[in-house]
Every structure is written in C-alpha cells, then in structure tokens.
Amino acid sequence: MLWDTLWQFLPLIVLAICGAVWVVRDLARSTSMRTPQRPNTR
C-alpha cells in the first residue's frame, strides 16, 4: 500500500526537488552576480 502511494507521488517529488535545485541555483547566481566573490571553476 505504501509503495502505491510512493509511486503516485514520485513524479511530484522529483519535480519538487528539481524546482528547488533550480531556484537555489538561480538565487545563488543572482547573489554572486550582485556581490562578486571567488569565481566558481565548475
């Protein structure tokens, strides 16, 4: 029973994690642009 609900919510969880990572990366980029720090070699 737990696995069925997990499989139902899996796409939502993946989308939420991707969205959170995207927002955090965008915020980090904007803050780094605003306040110049050490360049990230990545």
Low-confidence stretches: none
What oligomeric state is this? single chain
Percent range for helical residues? over 70%
Largest sheet: none
Cα(first) to Cα(last) distance is 43 Å
Query: Strand share of the residues?
Result: under 5%
Rounded mean pLDDT is 83
Number of strands: 0
- Structural class by helix and strand composition: mainly alpha
What is the tally of helical segments? Answer: 1
Radius of gyration: 17 Å
Q: What is the ordering of alpha helices and beta strands?
A: H
In one word, what is the shape? rod-shaped
Kindly summarize this structure in a few lines.
With 42 residues, the protein is mainly α.
